[in-house]
Amino acid sequence: MPRVESPREANCNTTIKVLQNTGKTFGYMTPPLQPTAKDLPLRFLRASAFHFLASPDQLTLQVKDLLEARKEAGITTRPLIVWEPAPMYCRPNSLAAHVEASKLVDVFSPNHQELDALCGRLKQQGPLPPADVGREHVEGCAAAFMEEHFHIFGPHQLVIIRAAEHGSLVARRTTSGDQLQDTVDMTWVDPYYSVEDQNRIIDATGAGNAFLGAFAVEFQQNGGDAVEATAKASVAASFAVEQIGLPTKHHIGGRSSKSEWNGTTVAERMKEYERKTSKT
């Protein structure tokens, strides 16, 4: 999946985070860049998956431009399109716009707070609520989002709710029964860091990017097994939350050999994840 610096501006996005005893705040020091399909060199335009962080209006324009640019370049295959909604637009009055835009993508992935806000279950129009809801509440929000709009969601489309220490909920539309009744099939995937491990989480910034990037790669490689891809995405995200900034990487036995991240390999951490989740 490509990362792009817009040629129209030399500076990258700059962010600032303030950590205090009472919590943390996050904000942009410079206006966020909005690369478009026209900014992509051909090698990036040929990517098999694209991850968008955007409002519904932005997503609609960007997907249209992307598919047109690929067509003009002679690229006939459709890429996997993953949409992470921009948090500031996740409000009840934009629910219809999010549902409508979802038909353009293969994976719609809000976190549980963003989905809660979209479903109108906030008690006030202020900051997003703390992560103190359980799996039952997340399932209720997912059902409310999907069941009212079955005409939008095709059977190939996924809704993946990233719910922090509760894990991730994989939801998709299915048809079952003699009368071919539409239902929402939901599967929970455990997190790498559970409620008991929260002291290991230093900073969750970037965890969503790590999760969705890993998901897109694994989902395409394993033949479309969303649950397996979500499990591996949870492991990938675990590296992003253990420090402020990027995880530490070094090569074992030279640059052509395997790499360690934060002192362990991905394979070792995957085995640890399987050991931990087999007990639940």
Automatic annotation (TrEMBL):
<feature type="domain" description="Carbohydrate kinase PfkB">
    <location>
        <begin position="91"/>
        <end position="245"/>
    </location>
</feature>
<dbReference type="Pfam" id="PF00294">
    <property type="entry name" value="PfkB"/>
</dbReference>
<dbReference type="InterPro" id="IPR011611">
    <property type="entry name" value="PfkB_dom"/>
</dbReference>
<dbReference type="InterPro" id="IPR029056">
    <property type="entry name" value="Ribokinase-like"/>
</dbReference>
<protein>
    <recommendedName>
        <fullName>Carbohydrate kinase PfkB domain-containing protein</fullName>
    </recommendedName>
</protein>
